[in-house]
Design goal:
This protein has 235 residues and is α+β, with helices and mostly antiparallel strands. The protein has two domains: 81 residues, no CATH class; 116 residues, 2-Layer Sandwich (Muramoyl-pentapeptide Carboxypeptidase, domain 2). It contains seven helices and eight strands, in the order αααββββαβααβαββ. The strands form three sheets. The chain has a four-stranded antiparallel β-sheet with strand order 5-6-8-7, covered by helices on one side. A two-stranded antiparallel sheet has the order 1-4. Strands 2-3 form a two-stranded antiparallel ribbon. A hairpin with a 6-residue loop joins strand 2 and strand 3. Helix 1 packs across helix 5. The longest helix has 18 residues. The radius of gyration is 18 Å and the shape is globular. The site of zinc ion has 6 residues, from strand 6.
Length: 235
């Protein structure tokens, strides 16, 4: 029988990861969220690359994750850029703009369709706060949250997927995180999304338009409740 050991991140590696995150944040350029591994590793020296690569070996099933291994897939070539999205905010401008987000062609079309329908029926729309993200970006994101949660792998996995397990990095059936035009949810009160008209409408209608809720309340996948996270599942 094979004995699997959980990964141990040494103090030295923790320091290195903290440092390399800063480096990436300072040097990253446009389109970083859809970049490949060569681009990500290109910011770093060999030791840093190795520390980051070690995180790819984390097996989320050992931490209570019961979802699916989706694989490290190539970055799709048909990504559509979504620009100029803005939601209401309590600042001088009265709104906040979302940076460029990406969706593969098929998911983008489905998103348009469902949004038009929702607007016709209840006069509301949802915006894409997170769409497609590459596996390399997911690795950066995982490291970022890992650092934020003091290298508690368990806690991190409940919040953000290890590369290969994220529905945001799937070419064909990608997940979208929605935000309302009123700016719900925000990081601090994420659960508020469940009280919105938009969410209510999605619960009743999303299926007809090819979307499914991935992480409902008390889901059995070992992932926290994410009412804003919907996966394009096709017709
Ligand atoms: Zn999501």
């Amino acid at each position: 029988m094979q004995i699997k050991k959980k990964i141990i991140i040494t103090e030295k590696e923790k320091q290195r990861i903290k440092f390399l995150l800063q480096k990436i944040i300072e040097e990253k350029k446009e389109k970083f969220s859809i970049s490949d591994f060569d681009t990500l590793y290109g910011f770093l020296n060999k030791r840093e690359v190795n520390s980051l690569k070690k995180l790819l070996k984390i097996n989320p099933f050992e931490y209570g994750f019961k979802g699916e291994y989706l694989g490290i897939q190539e970055v799709p070539k048909d990504l559509v850029e979504i620009e100029g999205q803005r939601f209401k905010a309590d600042n001088e401008e009265g709104f906040q703009e979302i940076g460029i987000r990406y969706l593969p062609q098929s998911a983008y079309k489905a998103y348009k369709r469902i949004n038009d329908r929702m607007f016709k029926e209840i006069g509301r729309r949802v915006l894409v706060t997170s769409g497609y993200r590459s596996p390399a970006y997911q690795l950066f994101l995982f490291a970022y949250y890992l650092d934020m949660y003091d290298f508690d792998i368990q806690k991190t996995i409940e919040r953000v997927a290890v590369p290969g397990y994220s529905e945001h990095s799937v070419a064909d059936y990608v997940a979208i995180d929605f935000i309302t035009e009123e700016g719900v949810p925000q990081d601090k009160d994420e659960r508020l999304f469940e009280g919105t008209e938009e969410y209510k409408w999605l619960l009743e209608n999303a299926k007809k338009y090819g979307f499914g809720e991935s992480y409902p309340l008390n889901n059995k996948l070992g992932v926290m409740y994410e009412p804003w996270h919907w996966r394009y599942v096709g017709d």
